[in-house]
Amino acid sequence: ETGKVGYVTADKLNVRQAANTTSSVIGALTEGKAVTILSVTNNMGKINYNNGIGYVSMSYISYNQPSKPQPPVETGKVGYVTADSLNVRQAANTTSSVIGAVTQGKAVTILSVTNNMGKINYNNGIGYVSMSYISYDKPSTSQPQTQYKYVVTADSLNVRNQPSTAGTIVGKVSNGQEVQYVKTVDNGWMQIKYNNKDAYVSSAYVEKVSANSSNTGNGGNNTGSANYANLKGKTIVLDAGHGGKDSGAVGNKLYEKDITLDMVKRVKSKLESNGANVILTRGDDTFITLSGRTSISNNSNAQIFVSIHINSADSTSGRGVETYYHNHSDSGLRNKSNALATSILNELLTASSMPNRGVHDANFQVIKYNHKPSTLLELGFISNPSDASIMADSNYRNKAAEAITRGISKYFN
């Protein structure tokens, strides 16, 4: 459609010199701005701009005029958070800056509601939350506690009298055998009860799984997480790429924003089961600005930041896994980011047969302006049928989440 008025849906939409997304940026339009689309070529709209001509991506133009804000509805009722982590925003819209988060089950007083955004008291000030994740029904306090068991994953694992390879071997346990866990000790060792006595095994070859799962060692369908003692007490920011109005890459009936959200939830579960503290930049299908994501990381006490994405290309032949870090001027931050990207890539390559595309330095905003050691992961190509088929599989996603967890653990070694 040409000659029609369209409205910008992105926070900031680049205006380019030519009708392609690699052309020079000559300016920008803000959300809600009305522009006349003179013509469209390759999904790039031609517009009048600053007494000349410019081009914008039609992916962020809507011909539907934005609705006028609804008047606030006063409530004063107490609501309860239903999402794992619900972003608190500076203003009453889902594109406003994130100033914090409230966790599942948290009680908040909804002062008023405007456009499905609830106004709340937050940190001695005011914040706004999406009412899609607030329930006025108080959650039940009697939730069953998950029980776990510890199962050997090695073909044969030595049991020693000391938490060291110098310790005397007092026996062996085999693949799929359950051990009586006592506690995790330093340097990757686990204390167990063996023949009614204290003994030690390498925690790298023991997996913590739900007591209800049917685990058969390496040959089974276990989806639990191995035990990584060095993650205990670490704080990690996980960033699910895209979200909300920004679908990210789309291909083979898959949406990048859906895969990345599912992956961070899986990784979060595995990290937390090993004692880590996890901060999500988004825990639901919400649009978060790039600056909002880095702000969450920079304002936290996290040790690292991991952003999960899915790749795409014009050609369907491109495939494989790769990771990125930023070439910071601070050599310490640069080296740590490189080490993190390398450690996770090495483990991801064990989760599937996808090609290794390597570790690269890049200027992605979420890692360029991050004050923490950080990496951006590309788990495969959504545009490639083979990669897409692998990424659609729940078993692969769990393997990839385990690999990311293992890579993070090895980074901290």
TrEMBL record:
Q: Name one GO cellular component term.
A: outer membrane-bounded periplasmic space
* MF-aspect GO terms: N-acetylmuramoyl-L-alanine amidase activity
Q: Is Hydrolase set as a keyword in this record?
A: yes
One Pfam family from the record: SH3_3
- Which BP terms does GO give this entry? cell wall organization; peptidoglycan catabolic process
At the top level, the lineage of the source is Bacteria
Keyword annotations of the record: Cell wall biogenesis/degradation, Hydrolase
Q: Which Gene3D superfamilies did the record assign?
A: SH3 Domains, Zn-dependent exopeptidases
What InterPro entries does the entry give? MurNAc-LAA_cat (IPR002508), N-acetylmuramoyl-L-ala_amidase (IPR017293), N-acetylmuramoyl_amidase_3 (IPR050695), SH3-like_bac-type (IPR003646)
Residues in SH3b domain copies:
3-65, 76-138, 147-210
Q: Does the keyword Hydrolase apply?
A: yes
State the protein's name. Answer: SH3b domain-containing protein
Q: What is the native source organism of this protein?
A: Bacillus thuringiensis
